[in-house]
Amino acid sequence: MSFQRIIDGFICLIVLSSLGGCVSKENEGEYQSGEMEHVKRDKHRPAFHFTPQSNWMNDPNGMVYFEEEYHLFYQYYPDSTVWGPMHWGHAVSKDLISWEHLPIALYPDSLGYIFSGSAVVDWQNTSGFGEDGNPPLIAIFTYHDMEAEKAGRIDFQYQGIAYSLDKGRTWTKYDQNPVLPNQGVKDFRDPKVFWYEPGKKWVMTLAELDHVSFYSSTDLKKWEKESDFGKGFGSHAGVWECPDLFEIQVNGTNESKWVLLLSINPGGPQGGSATQYFVGDFDGQNFIPDESFSKEILNEQAVWLDYGADNYAGVTWSDIPEEDGRRLFIGWMSNWQYAQVVPTTKWRSAMTMTRALELHRTESSYRIHSKVIDEYNEIIGEGSSIENLQADIYMVNLSVSNDFEFTLANVSNEQVVIEMTGDTLYFDRSKSGIVDFEDGFGTRHQTYVGDLKIEKLTVYVDYSSVEIFVNDGELVITELIFPNQPFDKITVDGDAEITITRPIKEIM
User: Which is the catalytic residue, given 8, 42, 59, 462?
Assistant: First the structure.
């Protein structure tokens, strides 16, 4: 569970709705794009990104695939649009595009708020919670005891579990929680659990202030410490949070490595929140960074998963079928620097587009590429010219070389500029619309690309976000925007050519 400051503040009925939830009867505002008809919707609510139907959301939690459903749980406060006592909200999808909102899965109780964590399918019923051959879903989460924190104690976070026997619709908390008491660490949270087959055991990766610790269990109830990792590696400019450890095959080879995702707040490349990662090996007890990769992460250097301002606390789905084989990822599309003051009033926060993570070997090291999943092709229309765009949510492909400038604009003279100058890629949202809610939001962000040869940009534009995938995900930039009207005008200057512009269907 990640938070910068605490501000204490009924989820809707079960519906099958869009990624952005159902349209409110009392709209926050209306968009008008050029001569297009008015589109009545909550102002700035995304059209093809997941949002809560109402109120506050942050970290994605407990993502698990079971019986042809992708489960997405998330940090949720049902009584306000700012952070408060945390619950686990819940939605499911068949395709990662359209989501069915379900009732709250986990509520706070006498042990505390329900902070971030993970979920697994206990296929072998190691926990003993399964019945009649029905494997249980197990949620592993952090309890946060607010009263203990207010009293000045440091042992106010510890780990609990709950189980479900009805595909995640209802949950029973283990009557002997917590399963992992606090070990004398102030920040002791965000358990990410997976089954480690060589050792026939569960492994938990847990964030502990400035490092991660690994624990193991044979039954998900009793945990033993294995090792620590992180001191002396990567950025320590903020608190470490939301880890995720997984094995992945190196693209195009028979080699496999282990990747450790690790979010940090503050200290990101654009200020505030961001996610770094490490590549190495894991033997069931210890994570050892690869020798070539470790040179890049010494002295508080970081390799970032996303170089924009607004992709945080992301983790991957567990139990994706072997025949699928993808490592599917989603992040919270916001930043603790301004998350609680963005100009939305009925709902706050969205998730990023779902991405498939791939690990590639470079000449000297390893890098994660973030690929847009193929499922999005089902909602992307036929191509059109920039002179006849006829869309205000769309995907643009650009072929680029050398310096260029790509601008999104609207009839209110608001604009977003993506610019390449020398070895630096810029994203300028200083004139993107509403920017005055926080001093640092309306800025010009920059990403040093070094020797990376940029040949292609794929840009996805929604009502309140721009996601840029460089060279099919070799580098990614995710940024929030809050224009007063949609960006329905495109211009490009320099060594760049728009090869295709394709409207994206609104999921309603």
Answer: 59
Give residue-wise pLDDT tens across range 139-157: 999 999 999 999 999 999 9
Report the distance separating Cα 305 and Cα 473, nearest Å: 10
For 411: left if phi > 0, alpha if psi spans -120 to 50, otherwise beta; the answer is: alpha
The pair of structure tokens assigned to 22 is: 């159902």
Nearest to 312 by CA among 480, 115, 444: 480
Q: Which of 285, 288, 287, 159 is nearest to 226 (CA)?
A: 285
Mark residue 210 as left, alpha or beta (left: phi above 0; alpha: psi -120 to 50; beta: remaining). alpha
228 noted as active-site residue: no
Amino acid at 24: S
Question: Residue 494 pairs with which residues in a beta bridge?
Answer: 404
Percent helix, strand and coil across the chain, each rounded to 5? Answer: 5, 50, 45
Query: Long-range pairs for 33-42 at CB < 8 Å and ≥24 separation?
Result: 33/392, 33/410, 33/411, 33/485, 33/486, 33/488, 34/411, 34/488, 34/489, 36/390, 36/392, 36/488, 39/392, 41/463, 42/344, 42/346, 42/347
What is the 3-state secondary structure of 95-130?
Answer: CCCCEEEEEEEECCECCEEEEEEEEEECCCCCCCCC
**Sheet of strand 355-361, all strands in order from the earlier edge strand to the far edge:** 312-316, 327-332, 355-361, 366-372
pLDDT value for 389: 78
How far apart are the C-alpha atoms of 221 and 177, rounded to whole Å? Answer: 9
Cis-peptide into 46, omega within 30 deg: no
Peptide bond before 60: cis, by omega within 30 degrees of 0? no
**Residue 91, SS3 per DSSP:** strand
pLDDT for the residue numbered 40? 57
What pLDDT score does 35 carry? 32
Total residues found in the chain within this entry: 508
For 33, 386, 394, 486, the CA distances from 390, given in Å and listed in that order, are 9, 9, 10, 12
Cβ atoms of residues 145 and 111 within 8 Å: yes
CB 250, CB 361: distance < 8 Å: yes
The residue ranges of the chain whose pLDDT is under 70 are 1-40, 508
CA distance 108 to 113: 4
What is the pLDDT, as a whole number, of residue 391?
Answer: 84
d(CA 213, CA 188): 10
| pLDDT value, residue 508 | 57
Among 246, 265, 266, 264, which Cα is nearest to 256's? 246
The Cβ of residue 210 has, within 10 Å, a number of other Cβ atoms equal to 15
List all residues 6 or more positions away from 312 whose beta carbon is below 8 Å from its beta carbon: 2, 59, 242, 263, 265, 268, 273, 274, 275, 331, 332, 334, 335, 336
